[in-house]
Please model this.
Amino acid sequence: MLVTNAMMLVTNAMMLVTNGTMLVTNAMMLVTNAMMLVTNVMMLVTNAMMLVTNAKNTSRPHPLTPSPAGEGELNLLLPSPCGRGAGGEGETFQSSGFHLKLTPMLPLPSVAILVG
Model:
């Protein structure tokens, strides 16, 4: 019985060492996960800053500024009918709206009507 108790004592000691090792391993994993979390938060902040910087640096013309068109044409970007267009109130980062192409009209022939 003394030998059995000694063997149980040794087994318990080995289990204690194993549990201690597992505790240290779990603590190291916790620190690693915390470092990864900090890294991910830093990347998120960096991406947000880049997004804001890119949005500020993206220049768009005023909606009624003529865009390049063929000779004798005027091509305008007008805000979309729902009120969210390029420029003005409710402005978005994406240009939305529709183009209106204006071409000069030829003068109508004048016809003289004589009433007698």
The longest strand covers residues 74-78.
